[in-house]
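worker-03 picked up job from queue 'complexes'. Input manifest follows; two sequence lines, order preserved.
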Amino acid sequence: DVKVTQSSRYLVKRTGEKVFLECVQDMDHENMFWYRQDPGLGLRLIYFSYDVKMKEKGDIPEGYSVSREKKERFSLILESASTNQTSMYLCASSPPGMVAGSNQPQHFGDGTRLSIL
Amino acid sequence: DQQVKQNSPSLSVQEGRISILNCDYTNSMFDYFLWYKKYPAEGPTFLISISSIKDKNEDGRFTVFLNKSAKHLSLHIVPSQPGDSAVYFCAARSWDAGNMLTFGGGTRLMVKP
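worker-03 finished. Artifact:
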């Protein structure tokens, strides 16, 4: 069973702080993703990575950066946190293509609810 | 420009009745569609999927219908149970985009006892 683990379930930080959100997956998946979920807006892709040290911008990368030094770990960094970055952050992982016998492209962690005060 | 839309932000249904959640898409390259279910303070969990070569897929109380000509899919839950109360996200995958998914805005389903 795929396990995607996000280091914190709840986090409270102050405006201007540098914030790190960590995600680890145990399935040796090549792809990893960071989304944020806001009411009415669904899941919006911030960044994704298709290999170690590789990263691509998603739909809303502004104010964020990422790091993927090891295959199993994908970190999201808020360089200088702002109140509009208060949100639920979701990490996901997937293999590069559809796997025979699998009907689920992406597996999600439980999310980190981040509040910026 | 939203390629996947869920036009109903919320839906309220009586326990035992049918819940119908709708999703529309615009991208003709989408070849695989999924529904994820999300409880508060948890990550989305996969519910059911359908390939574009099919028009129906059933799994227990959950059935997904795909109408390619209308670019519309729907999720039917019969009978609805209070434990089904959650936010449901429709997602779509393009055949040329690996496992990248495009998500709709979600529909909050409330099943009343």
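worker-03 released lock.
Residues 13 and 20 of chain B are 9 Å apart (CA to CA).
Chain B touches chain A at residues 4, 6, 9, 32, 34, 36, 38, 41-46, 49, 89, 93, 98-101, 103-106 (CB under 8 Å).
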